[in-house]
């Protein structure tokens, strides 16, 4: 095991089926959330992202996240505007998940580091940038609101992610296919 994994499993029927199931899970879980909209809202989509990274590696997870984002915004749209920047963020999010979680031992430390990088890159940097571009909102005003919320979600997502991935790793659902 290395610190980070840049490999993905071979593209087999089983891998494609697993990707399809996880894309469906991503779409459904990203629609579920708890907490009020104006305070800290926790979405469950992060669980599917972690599972994709764990099973599919960085490159297939990046592709799966792009497919999920496009399907969510076209077929399952709730009326919001499509912005390609968020699709780019989804791809980066998938790559980060795969790099940190594919073929790795699941430890609380690894999950905290993974979620920190994920939160910093996709949530704080890119999402703030996309909101600024779309709505011309001042970046410092956005960061003032977004950073505290993301610190809280970082902690919660790390702990929940650890518990979920630890349980899933015991199921031994990974195929014995070589990676490329």
Structure commentary:
The chain is mainly α and 180 residues long. It has helices spanning 13-31, 45-74, 84-101, 108-135, 139-169; strands at 33-34, 42-43. It has a single domain (13-31, 38-169), classed as Arp2/3 complex 21 kDa subunit ARPC3. Strands 1-2 form a two-stranded antiparallel sheet. The protein is globular, with a radius of gyration of 16 Å.
Helix-strand blueprint:
Layout: H1 13-31, E1 33-34, E2 42-43, H2 45-74, H3 84-101, H4 108-135, H5 139-169
Antiparallel strand pairs: 1-2
Compact overview of the structure:
With 180 residues, this protein is mainly alpha-helical. Helix content is 70%, strand content 2%. A hairpin with a 7-residue loop joins β1 and β2.
CATH class value: Mainly Alpha
CATH topology: Arp2/3 complex 21 kDa subunit ARPC3
Q: Any idea how many domains?
A: 1
What does the overall shape look like? globular
Strand % is under 5%
Give the strand order of the largest sheet, numbering strands 1, 2, ... along the chain. 1-2
> Mean pLDDT, rounded to whole units?
92
Low-confidence stretches: none
Structural class by SSE content:
mainly alpha
Largest sheet report: 2 strands, antiparallel
Give the helix level as a range of percent.
over 70%
Shape-level CATH architecture: Orthogonal Bundle
Could you give the distance between the termini? Answer: 15 Å
Order of helices and strands: HEEHHHH
Rg over alpha carbons: 16 Å
Q: Count of helices?
A: 5
Secondary structure: number of strands: 2
Organism: Ligilactobacillus salivarius
Keywords: Membrane, Transmembrane, Transmembrane helix
GO molecular function: transmembrane transporter activity
InterPro entries: ECF_S_folate_fam, ECF_trnsprt_substrate-spec
């Amino acid at each position: 095991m290395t610190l980070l994994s840049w490999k993905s499993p071979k593209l087999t029927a089983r891998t494609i089926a697993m990707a399809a199931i996880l894309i469906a899970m991503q779409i459904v879980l990203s629609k579920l959330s708890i907490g009020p909209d104006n305070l800290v809202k926790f979405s469950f989509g992060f669980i599917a992202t972690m599972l994709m990274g764990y099973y599919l590696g960085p490159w297939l997870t990046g592709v799966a996240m792009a497919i999920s984002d496009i399907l969510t915004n076209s077929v399952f749209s709730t009326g919001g505007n499509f912005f390609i920047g968020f699709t780019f963020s989804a791809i980066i999010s998938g790559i980060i998940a795969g790099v940190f979680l594919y073929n790795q031992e699941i430890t609380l430390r690894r999950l905290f580091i993974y979620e920190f990088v994920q939160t910093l890159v996709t949530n704080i940097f890119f999402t703030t940038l996309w909101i600024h571009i779309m709505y011309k909102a001042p970046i410092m005003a956005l960061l003032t609101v977004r950073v505290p919320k993301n610190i809280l979600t970082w902690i919660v997502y790390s702990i929940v992610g650890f518990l979920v991935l630890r349980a899933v790793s015991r199921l031994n659902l990974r195929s014995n296919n070589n990676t490329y």
